[in-house]
Amino acid sequence: MGKPVLMDFFAEWCGPCHQQSPIIDELKRRMGDRVEIRKIDVGVDSEETRRYAMKYDLQFVPTIVIEKDGEVVRKLVGVQDLATLESILKPLVEK
User: Fold this and answer.
1) Is the pLDDT of residue 10 over 80?
2) Contact 10, 39 (CB under 8 A)
3) Which of the residues 5, 20, 33, 74 has the least number of beta carbons within 10 Å of its own beta carbon?
């Protein structure tokens, strides 16, 4: 089994995304390499961002998608606190 992947979909122009960023940085510090964390700027129009938008039905930023073994475990819209993210991820890394 692979490690969980947290994708933080954000845009540079998004105020709440700037609030989410330090929380994601702290999560990365706490979880280390047990979780793969990707920050994805969907504020730039490109083929890649359109694919992400369609695949994950992204309509708002920030949006966090957590996957394990290629399957979506959770999709969270809006700023998420550290405790919430840890409570979702810890059971996934302990399996």
Assistant:
1) yes
2) yes
3) 33
Measure the CA angle with vertex 63, ends 92 and 40; round to 5°: 90
Query: In 14-79, where does DSSP find H-type helix?
Result: 15-31, 47-56
The pairing of beta strand 36-41 with beta strand 63-68: unpaired
Q: Is the dihedral of CA 27, 20, 39, 63 positive or negative?
A: positive
**pTM summary value:** 0.94
What would the pLDDT profile of 43-76 be if each residue is shown by its tens digit?
988 999 889 999 999 999 999 999 999 999 999 9
pLDDT band at residue 94, thresholds of 50, 70 and 90? confident
Q: Is 17 a catalytic residue?
A: yes
Q: Regarding beta strands 5-10 and 36-41, do their DSSP bridges make them parallel or antiparallel, or are they unpaired?
A: parallel
When the pLDDT of each residue in the chain is averaged and rounded to a whole number, the result is: 95
Question: Among residues 17, 42, 61, 89, which one is catalytic?
Answer: 17
Q: Which of 11, 14, 79, 88 is catalytic?
A: 14
